[in-house]
Amino acid sequence: MHIAIASGKGGTGKTTIATSLALAIKEQYQVQYIDCDVEEPNGHIFLKPEFTYKESVTVQVPRVDLSRCNFCGRCAEICAFHALAVLPGNVLSFVELCHSCGGCMYFCPEKAISSAEQEIGWIEGGLAEGIDFIQGRLKIGVAISPPLIQAVKNKRLPGAAVIADVSPGTSCPVIKAVEGADFCILVTESTPFGLHDLELAFGMIQELKVPGGVVINRSDGKDEDIERFCKDKGIPLLMKFPFSREIAVNYAKGLPLLAIKPQWKKDLIDLWRKCERMGRN
Amino acid sequence: MKIAISAEGNSIEARVDPRFGRCEYFAIISEDKDQWEHISNSGAFAGGGAGIHTAQELVNRKVECVLTGRIGPNAMGVLQAAGIKVYTGASGTVREAFEQYKNGLLKQSLTANASLHEGMSRGRK
Amino acid sequence: MKELVVISGKGGTGKTCITGSFAVLAQNKILVDCDVDAANLHLLLGPTQNDQQPFYGMPKAVIDKEKCSECGICANLCRFDAIKEFEVNSLACEGCAVCYHACPNEAIQMAEHLSGYLYISDTRFGWLVHARLGIGEGNSGKLVAAVRQQARKIAEDNRCDLIITDGPPGIGCPVISSLSGADLALIVTEPTLSGLHDMERVLTLVDHFEGKAAVCINKFDLSISNTEEIQQKCKEKGVPVVGKIPYDKEVIKAVRAGRPVVDYTSGKVKDKIIALWDETKKQLSL
User: How many CB contacts within 8 angstroms connect chain A with chain B?
Assistant: First the structure.
């Protein structure tokens, strides 16, 4: 079972809920936490894993052998991302623009282009209180994160209860993280921002055909707009977490929700079971 | 000497387009023949790497000198590697910019004076 | 003309609330929302008039079934696993056109692809340029560039001194595109361990591109010790802390009312945001 935790809007509490869900069910399940928010991975702050391995993640970029190149310009012509420029006697490659499509290598008539590895980030892993913890960390300055997110997802353990923390938004990094999940929890808050971005996030899971449900975080009871949205769209409202300043203050210190409100463990286990029932397979 | 000037339209009375990579047209003059040619810039509609694509076009056309407003580091990297001279700060119409150049009023640039709008990269040899 | 970009690394720290308040306080400016994935600034500014422009991202591959001989070369070459059963999954297609060039039957076309919309709106605080990227679309960096370009043009035409941009969260493609060439990146953080961690990453990013940064600590009184740590980190890096905004329920009430905080309340939080704006102006030499 693989559950992705997404939101549209940032800062609604994805990581709070993902980490506490992992802690709540770890006695009943073999839990794996995968942090797919590779731009700003934060799950480690709450779960405090002991990292035991780190591997580099690379993408393939062109390396031109100038001794074989006849400067015909075919590679620059093929490259849809304009990552290559062919000059008389020289070829420049702009690797940060490269999408690793392999076109230049395949079409070079002189077979003068081979692939070189370009590091885009790292995967780090270890154990956190019995939870198998994996995170991706994007190298700062790298624009393209989906290959790193894919590398994180490739570490999923078959048969485990996989909880994936996802970055905010609805564009390619989110799609990469959520596609293939069995269920997606959309975390929102009862504000116009929360509602607006929930609509977008709901569109995203529909597009991906991933079943989902909504969790309202920091609820102060004025949740009518979100409730109406859920009803209209036929998306289940799974749970509400009430607002409390005590939670906000302790969250600031890096305490997981479950450590602040241990009495919510049962509710979190129920939340997981609901997702299991409604999820694929 | 073949000189390319970034332009907003396809005549020498068009205004200089201050953007290099995404300008709509280039006015190209072969100094020896005193003959103008106007080409539309396919780089204007490129996804990423517009500056690189535009610079490549000018390299392919054997341009030796560029007059423009602002130019980013990627495009500058390509033009410099190809030995094309770049003069920035051109303004007014294409004709006026060419006059400014002939009268030595434009400054030759060796570094970019604009930042990247897409992916941040430096040309690597 | 100056460009201020408000970013955060971590989402939900209060970028949009701060930007919305700046919209009230600043004179002669253009407002921009570069969070093209999930734009929110318009919810506070109440746009009244809309000019909508389509935004086309990278063209995507389309297979003509009539011409396709089902040889499978395209699917073999596609590095994005976007071709299955001789059909292109447009969510996965990145528009590299390798299949288009390789198809022996010329059965593949690169079709223009509508990726979203760019909007120019009139608000009671001035022009707002914003956008909406289609769900699951790539090219967010390109759309951000298009939004900024449009905003610069309007700013030049109207002789505005300042462009205020609400940036996206994270440190990836759209953030890099929002930051390039800006005069100041105002980083809105919060005194949580996540806020601190993400601020450090985004500061490194600004540094990587040789930009200038300043920091605002929002909800600073939620943890005085973390606030002190953020201040210490900023001091070490030589980044000025230009404001500390207290936690205040008026902020969420203002959001619910669909109004910028300083336009909604006259409490303590308003004074602090005004002080933040004054300091930010100094950093911009305005």
Answer: 67
